[in-house]
Amino acid sequence: MSNATIELLATDLNHQGGVYCPNTKADMQLWNSHPKVYLDVAHSGQAKCPYCSTVYKLKDGEHFAGH
Fold first, then answer.
1. Cα 29 from chain centroid (whole Å)
2. Can you give the pLDDT at residue 24?
3. What phi and psi, each to the nearest 5 degrees, are found at residue 12?
4. HEC readout, the chain
5. Residue 2, pLDDT score
6. For the chain (length 67 residues), average pLDDT per consecutive 10?
7. What pLDDT is recorded for position 65?
8. Residue extents of the structural domains in the chain
9. pTM to 2 decimals?
10. Are the CB atoms for 37 and 19 separated by under 8 Å?
11. How far apart are CA 52 and CA 4, in angstroms?
């Protein structure tokens, strides 16, 4: 399990405001990790993976305009 917090830029998010975990920004290898899960970061500014507990959050001052 990970307790990492990964800070993201708004440009790191997809067009819907989210990211997938496992994620290479979290220094994870896709082949040896949990199933791929979508995390909505833009809605609240952060999201926690239910599998590995990695937290993905927008860096201070970053805003997602999206849609």
1. 15
2. 84
3. -75, -20
4. CCCCEEEECHHHCCCCCEEEECCHHHCCCHHHCCCCEEEECCCCCEEECCCCCCEEEECCCCCCCCC
5. 56
6. 84 95 82 87 96 95 80
7. 82
8. 5-58
9. 0.86
10. no
11. 9
